[in-house]
Amino acid sequence: MNRLRYAPAALALAAALAAGPALATNGYFPHGYGIRAKGMGGASVAMTEDAMGGANNPASMVWAGPRLDLGVDLFSPRRDAQRSGAGVASLNGSVDSDSKLFYVPELGYNHLLGSDLALGVTVYGNGGMNTDYPQGPFQCPNSPTTVAPGNMLCGSGGLGVDLMQLVVAPTVSYKLNPSHSVGVSLLLGYQQFEAHGLQAFENIPNFSSAPGSVTNRGYSRSHGFGVRLGYLGRPIDSLTIGAAYAPKMNMSAFEEYKGLFAGGGDFDIPAHYAIGLAFTPTPALTVAFDYQRIEYSGVPSVGRASLPQGQLGAPNGPGFGWKDIDVFKLGVQWRASPAWTLRAGVNHGDNPIESADVTFNILAPGVMTTHYTAGFSWAMDPANELTAAFMYAPRQSVSGTSLFNQLMGPGAGGSETIRMRQYSIGLAWSRRF
Asked: What is the dihedral of CA 295, 297, 298, 299, to 10 degrees?
Protein backbone atom coordinates (compact mmCIF):
# COMPACT_ATOMS: atom_id res chain seq x y z
CA MET A 1 0.00 0.00 0.00
CA ASN A 2 2.90 2.40 0.61
CA ARG A 3 3.85 2.12 -3.04
CA LEU A 4 0.37 2.85 -4.34
CA ARG A 5 -0.13 5.97 -2.23
CA TYR A 6 2.26 7.94 -4.46
CA ALA A 7 0.20 7.49 -7.62
CA PRO A 8 -2.78 9.86 -7.02
CA ALA A 9 -0.55 12.75 -5.94
CA ALA A 10 1.78 12.22 -8.88
CA LEU A 11 -1.10 12.13 -11.37
CA ALA A 12 -2.55 15.33 -9.92
CA LEU A 13 0.81 17.07 -10.29
CA ALA A 14 1.15 15.86 -13.86
CA ALA A 15 -2.29 17.21 -14.71
CA ALA A 16 -1.30 20.60 -13.32
CA LEU A 17 1.94 20.64 -15.32
CA ALA A 18 0.09 19.67 -18.48
CA ALA A 19 -1.39 23.16 -18.72
CA GLY A 20 1.90 24.21 -20.33
CA PRO A 21 2.36 23.75 -24.08
CA ALA A 22 4.37 20.77 -25.30
CA LEU A 23 6.60 21.25 -28.32
CA ALA A 24 8.71 18.93 -30.35
CA THR A 25 11.64 18.39 -32.68
CA ASN A 26 11.18 15.35 -35.00
CA GLY A 27 8.47 17.08 -36.99
CA TYR A 28 6.17 17.88 -34.09
CA PHE A 29 7.08 14.80 -32.00
CA PRO A 30 9.73 15.11 -29.25
CA HIS A 31 13.26 13.87 -29.87
CA GLY A 32 12.68 11.55 -26.89
CA TYR A 33 10.29 10.68 -24.06
CA GLY A 34 11.74 10.75 -20.56
CA ILE A 35 14.74 12.73 -19.32
CA ARG A 36 16.96 9.64 -19.42
CA ALA A 37 16.10 9.03 -23.08
CA LYS A 38 16.52 12.72 -23.91
CA GLY A 39 20.13 12.52 -22.69
CA MET A 40 20.74 9.62 -25.13
CA GLY A 41 19.39 11.19 -28.32
CA GLY A 42 15.94 9.76 -27.54
CA ALA A 43 17.06 6.09 -27.75
CA SER A 44 14.67 4.20 -25.46
CA VAL A 45 12.81 1.30 -27.14
CA ALA A 46 15.19 -1.34 -25.71
CA MET A 47 15.95 0.47 -22.43
CA THR A 48 14.28 -0.53 -19.16
CA GLU A 49 15.42 2.00 -16.55
CA ASP A 50 12.34 4.18 -16.04
CA ALA A 51 8.53 4.10 -16.08
CA MET A 52 8.13 5.94 -19.41
CA GLY A 53 7.19 2.72 -21.19
CA GLY A 54 3.72 3.98 -22.09
CA ALA A 55 5.43 6.51 -24.40
CA ASN A 56 8.35 4.32 -25.54
CA ASN A 57 7.72 0.56 -25.23
CA PRO A 58 4.99 -0.88 -22.97
CA ALA A 59 6.86 -4.21 -22.72
CA SER A 60 9.71 -2.50 -20.83
CA MET A 61 7.66 -1.74 -17.71
CA VAL A 62 7.86 -5.25 -16.19
CA TRP A 63 11.68 -4.90 -16.21
CA ALA A 64 11.77 -1.41 -14.69
CA GLY A 65 10.66 -2.41 -11.19
CA PRO A 66 8.39 -0.46 -8.85
CA ARG A 67 9.18 3.24 -9.23
CA LEU A 68 8.02 6.80 -9.77
CA ASP A 69 9.61 9.14 -12.36
CA LEU A 70 8.61 12.80 -12.39
CA GLY A 71 10.28 15.43 -14.56
CA VAL A 72 10.02 18.54 -16.67
CA ASP A 73 11.91 19.66 -19.78
CA LEU A 74 12.44 23.38 -20.43
CA PHE A 75 12.35 23.76 -24.20
CA SER A 76 13.54 26.85 -26.10
CA PRO A 77 12.86 27.02 -29.87
CA ARG A 78 14.07 30.10 -31.78
CA ARG A 79 11.94 30.61 -34.92
CA ASP A 80 11.97 33.29 -37.62
CA ALA A 81 10.52 33.79 -41.08
CA GLN A 82 11.53 36.02 -43.99
CA ARG A 83 10.06 37.06 -47.34
CA SER A 84 12.18 38.61 -50.09
CA GLY A 85 11.99 39.39 -53.78
CA ALA A 86 8.24 40.10 -53.66
CA GLY A 87 6.79 42.06 -56.58
CA VAL A 88 4.64 43.82 -53.98
CA ALA A 89 7.65 45.30 -52.19
CA SER A 90 5.76 46.04 -48.98
CA LEU A 91 5.33 42.26 -48.43
CA ASN A 92 9.08 41.88 -47.91
CA GLY A 93 10.50 41.64 -44.42
CA SER A 94 11.38 39.29 -41.58
CA VAL A 95 9.98 38.56 -38.14
CA ASP A 96 11.00 36.48 -35.11
CA SER A 97 8.56 34.46 -33.00
CA ASP A 98 8.21 35.99 -29.53
CA SER A 99 7.51 32.75 -27.62
CA LYS A 100 10.90 31.26 -26.71
CA LEU A 101 10.49 29.13 -23.57
CA PHE A 102 8.08 26.27 -22.81
CA TYR A 103 7.93 23.44 -20.32
CA VAL A 104 7.13 19.82 -21.19
CA PRO A 105 6.05 17.64 -18.24
CA GLU A 106 6.46 13.90 -17.83
CA LEU A 107 5.38 11.29 -15.31
CA GLY A 108 5.79 7.55 -15.03
CA TYR A 109 4.56 5.24 -12.27
CA ASN A 110 5.06 1.47 -12.20
CA HIS A 111 3.85 -1.23 -9.78
CA LEU A 112 4.76 -4.92 -9.86
CA LEU A 113 2.24 -7.67 -9.18
CA GLY A 114 4.65 -10.51 -8.60
CA SER A 115 7.75 -10.89 -10.76
CA ASP A 116 6.04 -11.29 -14.15
CA LEU A 117 3.30 -8.63 -14.27
CA ALA A 118 3.47 -4.85 -14.06
CA LEU A 119 0.74 -2.21 -13.99
CA GLY A 120 1.71 1.39 -14.57
CA VAL A 121 0.84 4.73 -16.10
CA THR A 122 2.85 7.19 -18.20
CA VAL A 123 1.78 10.81 -18.68
CA TYR A 124 3.60 12.73 -21.39
CA GLY A 125 3.44 15.57 -23.87
CA ASN A 126 3.17 13.89 -27.25
CA GLY A 127 4.16 16.99 -29.16
CA GLY A 128 2.91 20.28 -30.46
CA MET A 129 3.47 23.40 -32.52
CA ASN A 130 3.69 27.01 -31.40
CA THR A 131 4.51 30.30 -33.09
CA ASP A 132 3.79 33.85 -31.96
CA TYR A 133 4.96 36.41 -34.52
CA PRO A 134 4.37 40.13 -33.95
CA GLN A 135 2.83 42.08 -36.81
CA GLY A 136 6.22 43.16 -38.16
CA PRO A 137 6.98 45.58 -41.02
CA PHE A 138 4.57 44.16 -43.58
CA GLN A 139 2.15 46.27 -45.62
CA CYS A 140 -0.46 44.24 -47.48
CA PRO A 141 -2.45 45.23 -50.60
CA ASN A 142 -5.70 46.88 -49.57
CA SER A 143 -6.76 47.82 -53.11
CA PRO A 144 -5.02 47.94 -56.49
CA THR A 145 -3.35 51.21 -55.44
CA THR A 146 -3.08 51.16 -51.62
CA VAL A 147 -1.54 49.06 -48.86
CA ALA A 148 -2.38 48.68 -45.17
CA PRO A 149 -0.56 47.23 -42.14
CA GLY A 150 -0.80 43.45 -41.81
CA ASN A 151 1.18 40.53 -40.47
CA MET A 152 3.35 38.24 -42.60
CA LEU A 153 0.26 36.38 -43.90
CA CYS A 154 -1.69 39.65 -44.30
CA GLY A 155 -3.98 39.15 -41.33
CA SER A 156 -4.62 41.60 -38.53
CA GLY A 157 -2.26 41.98 -35.56
CA GLY A 158 0.02 39.16 -34.46
CA LEU A 159 0.22 35.80 -36.21
CA GLY A 160 0.59 32.30 -34.80
CA VAL A 161 -0.76 28.98 -33.62
CA ASP A 162 -0.60 26.97 -30.41
CA LEU A 163 -1.09 23.19 -30.48
CA MET A 164 -0.57 20.99 -27.41
CA GLN A 165 -1.03 17.22 -27.19
CA LEU A 166 -1.11 15.32 -23.87
CA VAL A 167 -1.40 11.54 -23.52
CA VAL A 168 -2.19 9.48 -20.41
CA ALA A 169 -1.12 5.87 -20.98
CA PRO A 170 -2.27 3.17 -18.50
CA THR A 171 0.02 0.20 -19.21
CA VAL A 172 0.11 -3.56 -18.65
CA SER A 173 3.38 -5.44 -19.14
CA TYR A 174 3.89 -9.21 -18.83
CA LYS A 175 6.95 -11.48 -18.92
CA LEU A 176 6.33 -14.46 -21.16
CA ASN A 177 9.47 -16.10 -19.77
CA PRO A 178 12.75 -14.89 -18.21
CA SER A 179 13.92 -13.42 -21.55
CA HIS A 180 10.83 -12.01 -23.30
CA SER A 181 7.96 -9.66 -22.45
CA VAL A 182 5.01 -8.00 -24.14
CA GLY A 183 2.99 -4.95 -23.18
CA VAL A 184 0.07 -2.77 -24.15
CA SER A 185 -0.81 0.83 -23.33
CA LEU A 186 -4.21 2.45 -23.71
CA LEU A 187 -3.54 5.97 -25.00
CA LEU A 188 -6.01 8.57 -23.71
CA GLY A 189 -5.39 11.73 -25.71
CA TYR A 190 -6.18 15.39 -25.10
CA GLN A 191 -5.22 18.25 -27.38
CA GLN A 192 -5.96 21.93 -27.67
CA PHE A 193 -5.39 24.38 -30.50
CA GLU A 194 -5.61 28.12 -31.10
CA ALA A 195 -4.86 30.24 -34.17
CA HIS A 196 -4.73 34.00 -34.62
CA GLY A 197 -3.89 36.43 -37.39
CA LEU A 198 -5.22 34.38 -40.34
CA GLN A 199 -7.97 36.80 -41.37
CA ALA A 200 -6.71 36.90 -44.97
CA PHE A 201 -7.43 33.18 -45.39
CA GLU A 202 -10.87 33.74 -43.92
CA ASN A 203 -11.74 36.79 -46.03
CA ILE A 204 -10.69 35.57 -49.49
CA PRO A 205 -13.97 34.56 -51.18
CA ASN A 206 -14.47 30.78 -51.33
CA PHE A 207 -11.02 30.06 -49.85
CA SER A 208 -12.48 28.35 -46.76
CA SER A 209 -15.43 26.00 -46.46
CA ALA A 210 -16.37 27.62 -43.12
CA PRO A 211 -15.15 31.26 -43.15
CA GLY A 212 -16.25 31.92 -39.56
CA SER A 213 -14.10 29.09 -38.21
CA VAL A 214 -10.59 29.85 -39.45
CA THR A 215 -8.91 32.18 -36.96
CA ASN A 216 -9.20 34.00 -33.63
CA ARG A 217 -11.72 31.56 -32.14
CA GLY A 218 -9.84 31.02 -28.88
CA TYR A 219 -8.79 27.56 -27.76
CA SER A 220 -10.53 24.52 -29.24
CA ARG A 221 -10.24 21.18 -27.43
CA SER A 222 -10.23 17.62 -28.69
CA HIS A 223 -10.20 14.13 -27.17
CA GLY A 224 -9.52 10.63 -28.43
CA PHE A 225 -7.89 7.32 -27.72
CA GLY A 226 -5.52 4.81 -29.23
CA VAL A 227 -3.19 1.98 -28.29
CA ARG A 228 0.53 1.20 -28.21
CA LEU A 229 1.81 -2.37 -28.46
CA GLY A 230 5.29 -3.44 -27.40
CA TYR A 231 7.74 -6.33 -27.31
CA LEU A 232 11.08 -6.68 -25.52
CA GLY A 233 13.50 -9.60 -25.64
CA ARG A 234 16.96 -10.51 -24.32
CA PRO A 235 18.36 -13.23 -26.61
CA ILE A 236 21.70 -12.99 -24.80
CA ASP A 237 22.69 -11.24 -21.57
CA SER A 238 24.44 -8.37 -23.35
CA LEU A 239 21.74 -7.60 -25.95
CA THR A 240 18.17 -6.30 -25.60
CA ILE A 241 15.79 -5.92 -28.54
CA GLY A 242 12.62 -3.82 -28.46
CA ALA A 243 9.77 -2.88 -30.78
CA ALA A 244 6.69 -0.70 -30.38
CA TYR A 245 3.79 0.32 -32.64
CA ALA A 246 0.97 2.84 -32.26
CA PRO A 247 -1.63 3.07 -35.07
CA LYS A 248 -3.19 6.41 -35.93
CA MET A 249 -4.95 7.87 -32.90
CA ASN A 250 -8.43 9.11 -33.76
CA MET A 251 -9.23 12.46 -32.17
CA SER A 252 -12.43 14.48 -32.18
CA ALA A 253 -12.43 17.51 -34.49
CA PHE A 254 -11.42 21.04 -33.55
CA GLU A 255 -14.94 22.39 -34.07
CA GLU A 256 -13.92 26.05 -33.71
CA TYR A 257 -11.39 25.61 -36.55
CA LYS A 258 -13.41 23.47 -38.96
CA GLY A 259 -12.74 26.05 -41.67
CA LEU A 260 -8.95 25.69 -41.31
CA PHE A 261 -8.07 22.00 -40.97
CA ALA A 262 -8.93 19.53 -43.72
CA GLY A 263 -11.92 17.34 -42.91
CA GLY A 264 -13.85 19.93 -40.90
CA GLY A 265 -11.27 20.47 -38.15
CA ASP A 266 -9.96 16.91 -38.02
CA PHE A 267 -6.48 16.58 -36.48
CA ASP A 268 -5.58 12.98 -35.58
CA ILE A 269 -2.26 11.85 -34.10
CA PRO A 270 -0.29 9.99 -36.79
CA ALA A 271 0.71 6.33 -36.68
CA HIS A 272 4.30 5.69 -35.62
CA TYR A 273 6.50 2.73 -34.82
CA ALA A 274 10.04 2.04 -33.63
CA ILE A 275 12.56 -0.76 -33.20
CA GLY A 276 15.59 -0.59 -30.95
CA LEU A 277 18.71 -2.36 -29.72
CA ALA A 278 20.64 -1.93 -26.47
CA PHE A 279 24.09 -3.53 -26.32
CA THR A 280 25.90 -3.84 -22.97
CA PRO A 281 29.44 -5.13 -23.63
CA THR A 282 30.41 -4.45 -20.00
CA PRO A 283 28.27 -3.82 -16.90
CA ALA A 284 29.29 -0.14 -17.00
CA LEU A 285 28.61 0.61 -20.69
CA THR A 286 25.42 0.54 -22.79
CA VAL A 287 25.07 1.57 -26.42
CA ALA A 288 21.47 2.02 -27.65
CA PHE A 289 20.13 2.56 -31.15
CA ASP A 290 16.52 3.23 -32.26
CA TYR A 291 14.89 3.58 -35.66
CA GLN A 292 11.54 5.40 -35.67
CA ARG A 293 9.02 6.03 -38.46
CA ILE A 294 6.37 8.76 -38.14
CA GLU A 295 3.59 8.67 -40.75
CA TYR A 296 2.48 12.30 -40.98
CA SER A 297 0.99 11.75 -44.44
CA GLY A 298 -1.78 9.62 -42.89
CA VAL A 299 -3.35 12.70 -41.28
CA PRO A 300 -4.81 14.92 -44.07
CA SER A 301 -4.63 18.17 -42.11
CA VAL A 302 -0.90 17.58 -41.61
CA GLY A 303 0.17 15.59 -44.66
CA ARG A 304 -1.92 16.90 -47.55
CA ALA A 305 -0.12 19.39 -49.83
CA SER A 306 -0.66 23.05 -48.97
CA LEU A 307 -1.15 24.19 -52.57
CA PRO A 308 -4.88 24.93 -52.93
CA GLN A 309 -6.73 21.87 -54.23
CA GLY A 310 -9.96 22.43 -52.36
CA GLN A 311 -11.29 24.86 -49.79
CA LEU A 312 -9.67 25.10 -46.39
CA GLY A 313 -11.51 22.74 -44.06
CA ALA A 314 -13.05 20.67 -46.86
CA PRO A 315 -12.47 16.89 -47.06
CA ASN A 316 -10.02 17.54 -49.93
CA GLY A 317 -8.70 20.76 -48.41
CA PRO A 318 -5.02 21.65 -48.11
CA GLY A 319 -2.80 20.72 -45.17
CA PHE A 320 0.75 21.53 -44.10
CA GLY A 321 2.31 19.20 -46.66
CA TRP A 322 4.36 17.18 -44.18
CA LYS A 323 5.89 13.94 -45.50
CA ASP A 324 6.57 10.77 -43.51
CA ILE A 325 9.94 10.82 -41.77
CA ASP A 326 12.58 8.36 -40.60
CA VAL A 327 14.41 9.11 -37.35
CA PHE A 328 17.65 7.51 -36.14
CA LYS A 329 18.64 7.76 -32.47
CA LEU A 330 22.02 6.72 -31.04
CA GLY A 331 22.87 6.95 -27.35
CA VAL A 332 25.67 5.89 -24.99
CA GLN A 333 25.37 5.38 -21.24
CA TRP A 334 28.37 4.93 -18.92
CA ARG A 335 28.08 4.07 -15.23
CA ALA A 336 31.10 5.98 -14.01
CA SER A 337 30.53 5.01 -10.36
CA PRO A 338 27.73 3.58 -8.20
CA ALA A 339 26.40 7.15 -7.80
CA TRP A 340 27.02 8.68 -11.22
CA THR A 341 25.82 7.70 -14.71
CA LEU A 342 26.79 9.77 -17.77
CA ARG A 343 24.95 9.88 -21.12
CA ALA A 344 25.37 11.32 -24.61
CA GLY A 345 23.59 10.91 -27.90
CA VAL A 346 22.64 12.15 -31.34
CA ASN A 347 19.24 12.17 -33.03
CA HIS A 348 18.95 12.59 -36.80
CA GLY A 349 15.70 12.63 -38.74
CA ASP A 350 14.21 13.79 -42.01
CA ASN A 351 12.81 17.27 -42.43
CA PRO A 352 9.06 16.79 -43.11
CA ILE A 353 8.66 20.18 -44.87
CA GLU A 354 9.40 20.72 -48.55
CA SER A 355 9.92 24.04 -50.31
CA ALA A 356 6.50 23.94 -52.02
CA ASP A 357 4.79 24.14 -48.60
CA VAL A 358 6.84 26.86 -46.94
CA THR A 359 4.05 29.50 -46.71
CA PHE A 360 1.68 27.43 -44.57
CA ASN A 361 4.62 26.29 -42.45
CA ILE A 362 5.47 29.80 -41.37
CA LEU A 363 2.91 28.80 -38.72
CA ALA A 364 4.64 25.48 -37.92
CA PRO A 365 8.32 25.52 -38.95
CA GLY A 366 9.14 21.95 -37.91
CA VAL A 367 12.34 21.87 -40.00
CA MET A 368 14.79 20.34 -37.49
CA THR A 369 16.96 17.38 -38.49
CA THR A 370 19.86 16.86 -36.05
CA HIS A 371 19.94 17.04 -32.24
CA TYR A 372 22.96 16.61 -29.96
CA THR A 373 22.31 15.55 -26.36
CA ALA A 374 24.06 14.91 -23.06
CA GLY A 375 22.93 14.03 -19.56
CA PHE A 376 23.63 12.39 -16.23
CA SER A 377 21.99 10.70 -13.25
CA TRP A 378 23.05 11.09 -9.61
CA ALA A 379 21.92 8.45 -7.13
CA MET A 380 21.50 10.39 -3.91
CA ASP A 381 20.75 7.17 -2.01
CA PRO A 382 19.52 3.66 -2.95
CA ALA A 383 15.95 4.94 -3.43
CA ASN A 384 16.25 8.44 -4.90
CA GLU A 385 17.92 9.70 -8.05
CA LEU A 386 18.16 12.98 -9.95
CA THR A 387 18.54 12.95 -13.74
CA ALA A 388 19.33 15.86 -16.08
CA ALA A 389 19.56 16.18 -19.86
CA PHE A 390 20.58 18.88 -22.34
CA MET A 391 19.78 19.13 -26.06
CA TYR A 392 21.09 21.43 -28.78
CA ALA A 393 19.77 21.44 -32.35
CA PRO A 394 21.63 23.66 -34.84
CA ARG A 395 19.72 26.06 -37.06
CA GLN A 396 17.90 24.57 -40.05
CA SER A 397 15.96 26.36 -42.77
CA VAL A 398 13.67 25.74 -45.74
CA SER A 399 13.05 28.21 -48.56
CA GLY A 400 10.44 28.19 -51.30
CA THR A 401 8.15 30.20 -53.54
CA SER A 402 5.42 32.10 -51.70
CA LEU A 403 1.80 30.99 -51.97
CA PHE A 404 1.02 34.69 -52.55
CA ASN A 405 2.36 34.25 -56.09
CA GLN A 406 -0.80 32.21 -56.79
CA LEU A 407 -3.17 34.37 -54.75
CA MET A 408 -1.95 37.78 -56.00
CA GLY A 409 -0.30 36.99 -59.33
CA PRO A 410 3.07 35.65 -60.53
CA GLY A 411 6.00 37.19 -58.68
CA ALA A 412 3.83 39.14 -56.24
CA GLY A 413 4.98 37.19 -53.19
CA GLY A 414 8.60 36.38 -54.04
CA SER A 415 10.14 33.65 -51.90
CA GLU A 416 10.00 32.80 -48.20
CA THR A 417 12.36 31.18 -45.70
CA ILE A 418 11.54 29.60 -42.35
CA ARG A 419 14.29 28.89 -39.82
CA MET A 420 14.66 27.37 -36.37
CA ARG A 421 17.25 26.33 -33.81
CA GLN A 422 16.54 24.73 -30.42
CA TYR A 423 17.80 24.16 -26.90
CA SER A 424 16.36 22.21 -23.99
CA ILE A 425 17.34 21.29 -20.47
CA GLY A 426 15.40 18.81 -18.36
CA LEU A 427 15.41 17.56 -14.78
CA ALA A 428 13.69 14.50 -13.30
CA TRP A 429 13.39 12.91 -9.86
CA SER A 430 13.02 9.15 -9.56
CA ARG A 431 12.13 7.04 -6.56
CA ARG A 432 12.42 3.27 -6.36
CA PHE A 433 10.11 1.44 -3.97
From this structure: 110
